[in-house]
Design the sequence.
């Protein structure tokens, strides 16, 4: 039962953060495609790790994560207004590289498959 509750809380926080980030007036983030991939909240709701994916170079990804961590108090306040929880967890943003890792894996599989057929 607790797992269902935590997954629901994570989903609500994820949607709220995505909405807040999309409406932020930060010129450094304009024109970038930023996705909130995952939110992992601790059981005591003290911390939420937010995985962020950006379609850009590694330097820009790092810059976006730094900007979001800089604005985490603003984002947390806005999320607090949207999601009703007794305590709102602290937000920690991190870069999500799962897309790039999956692309590398798919390329390796394709290469091995082509080598076997040759």
Sequence:
């Amino acid at each position: 039962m607790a797992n269902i509750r935590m997954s629901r809380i994570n989903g609500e926080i994820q949607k709220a953060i995505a909405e807040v980030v999309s409406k932020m007036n930060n010129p450094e983030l304009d024109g970038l495609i930023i996705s909130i991939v995952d939110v992992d909240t601790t059981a005591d709701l003290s911390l939420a790790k937010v995985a962020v994916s950006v379609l850009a170079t590694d330097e820009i990804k790092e810059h976006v994560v730094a900007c979001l961590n800089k604005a985490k108090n603003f984002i947390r306040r806005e999320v607090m207004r949207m999601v009703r929880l007794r305590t709102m967890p602290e937000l920690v943003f991190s870069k999500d590289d799962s897309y790039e890792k999956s692309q590398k894996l798919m390329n390796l599989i394709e290469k091995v498959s082509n080598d076997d057929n040759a």
